[in-house]
From TrEMBL:
Its EC number is 2.7.7.6. InterPro entries: DNA-dir_RpoC_beta_prime, RNA_pol_Rpb1_5, RPO1C. The keyword Transcription applies. It comes from the Archaea. It comes from Pyrodictium delaneyi. GO terms for biological process: DNA-templated transcription. Keywords: Cytoplasm, DNA-binding, DNA-directed RNA polymerase, Nucleotidyltransferase, Transcription, Transferase. Belongs to the RNA polymerase beta' chain family. It is found in: Cytoplasm. This is DNA-directed RNA polymerase subunit Rpo1C. DNA-dependent RNA polymerase (RNAP) catalyzes the transcription of DNA into RNA using the four ribonucleoside triphosphates as substrates. Forms part of the jaw domain. Residues 52-350 form the RNA polymerase Rpb1 domain. It holds the Pfam family RNA_pol_Rpb1_5. It catalyses: RNA(n) + a ribonucleoside 5'-triphosphate = RNA(n+1) + diphosphate.
Length: 422
C-alpha cells in the first residue's frame, strides 16, 4: 500500500472500488477530469494506493461540500456576494495605447450596463479573428480591416469647400489618408456620382482635386448648399456601418505563431460575419442584444457570464462564478435578455406585492387592483410584507403533530408512561 506505482494500468485495478464510488457520485465531466489527472500524476511522479485513495476521497468530500443545501436562499446569497464587492468597483476605462479617443468602459459603469441590459454599450467593441489565410500576414489582415472599417469621404479629404462663384463643391483629397484607408480616387468619384448632385470632374492639373458641379436653381440658398456639402462629407465609400475604426493587434497563439486580429470601435455582428477573410467561429462583440439576435439566447447568456466575470476579475474581485451564472440565468430565462429592474425582471414578477415593493408602489398596487390580481404569496418579498413564514431554509417544510398518535406511542412505551405518572 505504501509502494510507489508508476503505471496507471497497475494502479487502476487496486483502486477500482474507490473509482466506482467516484463514478457514481460525481458528474461525468468531473469524474473524467479526476481520472485523467490521476493517470498523469501516476505516470509522472508515481502514487501509492493510499495516496490515490485519499485523493479520490478528498475530491468527493470537496464536491459534496460545494453542493447547495436544500432550501438555501441562493438569490439572496448571489445578490450579497456580487453587491458587496461591487461597492469597491471603480469608474475605469481602458485606453488603447497610441490610439486617439479609443477607450473601453470597465468597472462599475460596464457592470451597470450589463445588468441594465443596455441596448447599446457606451463603448461598443468587437474582436475579429481571421481565417487561416489572413491571420499570419499583417498585409492581408490590413486588407480585411479596410473592408470592415466604415470609410466616408470626410475620412480621406483634407478640405471640402463651396465655390459660390462657379456653384460647385471643391473636394481636395489627402494622399496619406487615401493610402491608409486603401481608397482610390476612382472610388471617391464613383461615390460622388452615386449622390447625383451634379457632374463630377477632375482638376486638369491636380487629380486629387475633384469638383461637383451643382445644377443652378432659382430656389437655391446658402442653407441648401451647406446641406449638399454635408451630404458629400458623409457619403459612404466602403465598409460596414457602425464600425468607426479598426486597429490591428497581434498575439502569440497556442502554436507559438504570431497571429493578427482586429479590434473595432463600434459593433455590427451580422455584417462582419459575412466579410471574406473573417473566421466566423471566433468573432466576438460586447453588445448583448446583437449576440441574442444573431446567435441566440444561449450565446447571450454565455456572453453575460463572461463579461460580468471579466469586469469583476479586472477589478481584483473574486466572486464565485455560480453567483454570476444565477444572475445571467434570471436575465435570460424567458428566452430574451431582460434587465434587472422595473422594465425587466423586477417589473415582470407575477406577485403584485413584490412589484410594488421594488419601485412605483402606488401605481403597481392600483394597476393590480384594477385587474383583480391575486397574490399567492409564493416569493420572499411578498411573504415578508404580510408577516408570513418565508419559504426558504427551515421554512420550506411543514411539521405537524397528530396528538392521538403521540398518545398511542407514549402508552406503548413503559418508560414514557412511568414518567407521565410521576
Amino acid at each position: 500500500m505504501t509502494q510507489l506505482i508508476f503505471s496507471w494500468e497497475e494502479l487502476k485495478p487496486k483502486i477500482e472500488e474507490q473509482l466506482f464510488q467516484a463514478r457514481e457520485r460525481l458528474p461525468k465531466r468531473i469524474y473524467e477530469e479526476l481520472e485523467e489527472k490521476l493517470k498523469n500524476t501516476v505516470e509522472k511522479h508515481g502514487l501509492t494506493v493510499d495516496e490515490a485513495t485519499k485523493i479520490i476521497e478528498y475530491v468527493l468530500n470537496e464536491y459534496e461540500y460545494s453542493m447547495v443545501e436544500p432550501g438555501e436562499p441562493v438569490g439572496t446569497v448571489a445578490a450579497q456576494s456580487i453587491g458587496e464587492p461591487g461597492t469597491q468597483m471603480t469608474l475605469r476605462t481602458f485606453h488603447y495605447a497610441g490610439i486617439r479617443e479609443f477607450n473601453v468602459t470597465l468597472g462599475l459603469p460596464r457592470f451597470i450596463e450589463l445588468v441594465d441590459a443596455r441596448r447599446e454599450p457606451s463603448t461598443p467593441i468587437m474582436y475579429i479573428y481571421l481565417d487561416e489565410e489572413h491571420r499570419y500576414d499583417e498585409n492581408k489582415a490590413k486588407e480585411v480591416a479596410r473592408r470592415i472599417e466604415y470609410t466616408r469621404i470626410v475620412n480621406v479629404a483634407s478640405e471640402i469647400d463651396i465655390d459660390l462663384i462657379n456653384l460647385r463643391i471643391v473636394l481636395r483629397l489627402d494622399p496619406v489618408m487615401l493610402e491608409d484607408k486603401g481608397v482610390t480616387v476612382e472610388q471617391v468619384k464613383k461615390t460622388l456620382e452615386r449622390l447625383k448632385l451634379g457632374k463630377v470632374e477632375e482638376d486638369s492639373s491636380n487629380p486629387l482635386v475633384l469638383y461637383v458641379q451643382l445644377e443652378p436653381s432659382e430656389s437655391f440658398s446658402l442653407i441648401d448648399l451647406q446641406k449638399k456639402r454635408e451630404k458629400v462629407l458623409n457619403a459612404k465609400i466602403k465598409g460596414i456601418k457602425k464600425i468607426r475604426r479598426v486597429i490591428i493587434q497581434s498575439m502569440v497563439n497556442d502554436e507559438g505563431k504570431t497571429e493578427y486580429f482586429l479590434v473595432t470601435e463600434g459593433s455590427n455582428l451580422k455584417d462582419v460575419l459575412e466579410v471574406p477573410g473573417v473566421d466566423p467561429r471566433r468573432v466576438y462583440t460586447n453588445n448583448i442584444h446583437e449576440i441574442e439576435e444573431i446567435l441566440g439566447i444561449e450565446a447571450a447568456r454565455a456572453m453575460l457570464v463572461k463579461e460580468m466575470k471579466d469586469v469583476l476579475d479586472e477589478q481584483g474581485l473574486d466572486v464565485d462564478i455560480r453567483h454570476i451564472v444565477l444572475v445571467a440565468d434570471v436575465m435570460t430565462m424567458t428566452g430574451r435578455v431582460r434587465q434587472i429592474g422595473r422594465h425587466g425582471v423586477s417589473g415582470e414578477k407575477p406577485s403584485p406585492l413584490a412589484r410594488a415593493a421594488f419601485e412605483m408602489t402606488t401605481q403597481n398596487l392600483f394597476a393590480a387592483a384594477a385587474k383583480g390580481e391575486v397574490d399567492k404569496l409564493l416569493g420572499v418579498t411578498e411573504t415578508v410584507i404580510v408577516g408570513g413564514v418565508v419559504r426558504v431554509g427551515t421554512g420550506m417544510v411543514e411539521v405537524r403533530m397528530n396528538p392521538s398518535l403521540v398518545a398511542k406511542a407514549m402508552a406503548q412505551t413503559p418508560e414514557a408512561g412511568q414518567r407521565g405518572e410521576a
